[in-house]
Amino acid sequence: MTRRSLAIAVAGALGVASTGHAQARSRLDSAMIRTSALIGTRVDTSGAPFAFPAFVDVILANHPVAQQARLVAEQARAELRTAWGAFDPKLTATWDQKRSGGTEYFKYFDAEMKIPLPIGADVTLAFDRTMGRYVNPERGTASNGTFSAGISIPLGQRLITDERRTALQLARAARDAGEAERTGILNKLLFSAAKDYGAWYETWRRRAIAQEGEALAAFRLQAVRARVANGESAPIDTVEALLELQRREVTRFEAEASFYVATLNLTAYLWDVEGRPAPLPGVVKPVLLGFERGGLDSTRLAGLLETATTRNPDLLKVQAKVQQAEADRLFATQGLLPFAEAKLSGLGERGNTEAFFDRARLDDNYKAGLTISTPLLLLKERGKFSSTGAKLEFQQFERERLRRDVEFDVRAAIFDLANLDRLLDRQAANVRNARLLRDAEQIRFENGESTLLILNLRERLVLEEATKLAALEAKVASARGALALATGDRALLTIGR
Asked: Which of 288, 285, 289, 291 is nearest to 45 (CA)?
């Protein structure tokens, strides 16, 4: 049923005779046309649409907090590169010489390259050359130098993991935590921006509604004065109409002040490419594009909970802490084993034409060593083992607690959005019905069957219901922001999927 037919039906229910339907319809249409034309000249709806997705793009590109979030992630990645430095091959060279009283005592030249392996062993390539009259026999070499190639292998501690592998695991977890921190910072920034954009939209609508109400009150004051001049209404009606106009002027002043503050709050998110505060891009107005309703209800709960498990920043940060605690625990476990390391190197003269790794040659040209050590009571090692175990258990409990909280947040956000869908449908119907009642009351007033007070009450109801609708529409922004924050998926902030 159309609004026009509904208005005729309401007018009939209010006592308009069936033979007077045409006259009632003519009066209602005329009143609506006059009112619409008047409102169009008073209500400020100018400005180019500034949709929330475009607002988000500007924030992510230039906002200082967005830049700080990027730096947090870069710092974590740099720390990972630092940890990889423990596996960087290292080249060292030394030269020692002593000459006294014209006598050359010794010359020592040592060069070594150590190549760490991911399994905890180290490959060593070295060249030594010794010259002089007084040389330590242990350091003696062939006249043209000695080349050696060997490997050191841990047999107890550091077999499964060691300091550098543990540091690498910790750095990888820190990198994941840094990425999660970056996402969390951005999501919280956009959640705040969504709330402020919703407040901007709500105050913009409140201002338009207040302007509409004031325009209607001004129009009605003129009409009442004309009726009083024609003897159709009592002079006291002009006081009633003037009071209503003044009430609505006050409401408009308040709405304009709120809109001004909301605009300032929104402008605080705008920065240019050079990192300077930027104003709003010209004369703009908010629109609901990006906050479309529908598509999110309890049927999507399982998928959104899965998304939250894999993308919620706080949950990812706790998971990174669990991984770090596991790495520390494993390293502490190694401390309970005795330290044992075997070293083996083959030796050969520079320029020797024999194959370096020939078995027969290496049987008479090698260096080998075995080192074993262990504390007797393992007090330090057992204390560290207990401490890392407690830290791991603490982080695991924290992960389960946070997972539960995230689940509740996702459920609450979905319920809020689904409930807002129902409320918006009902509230839109309330606005339509309030307008029908107001228009019907207008006809009764023109027929002398109602009073100006009742007509004003009907119109106040229209304005109140329209204001409630604007507030509910603005809440969609906050609800979507809460869902995006809980799941860690920014796409849910603007896309009605």
From this structure: 285
